[in-house]
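Following up on my earlier thread - several people asked me to post the actual chain instead of describing it. Fair enough. Here it is, all 123 residues.
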Amino acid sequence: MGIAFRCTRCRARLHAPSRSAGGSVSCPRCETRVVVPEEARVEPTAFESRDVERSLALLDRPAAATSRTPAVEEPAAAVAGTRHGSGVTLPWWSIYAGMVGLVVVASVAFACGFWWYMAIGAR
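Reply from S.P.:
Thanks for posting it. Predicted structure:
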């Protein structure tokens, strides 16, 4: 029977064979060395809610099943959005809103600088 536990860095759910209890394995998601606990337990997080657990499950990636590395569970449910390298899931419209906001701020800054140059700097 395997041992289920969480990575201490990225909180991914890991599974390791019971013969590796007390040893260490590499997390397939963040590549951190994690000590396999002696008994099968999943440490509860401080924020145990369905939305957070669903987001954490979305971040878990399936790994190649080998005897030396633990396997990560499959995502339970997909959350609509765009996945970034940092692991943050954002709605598709927030990327466009950020780009439009950047263009607006840059345009206003240019206009203010041009006005300042024409009103004060040209004297």
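The CA atoms of residues 98 and 104 lie 10 Å apart. That should answer part of your original question.
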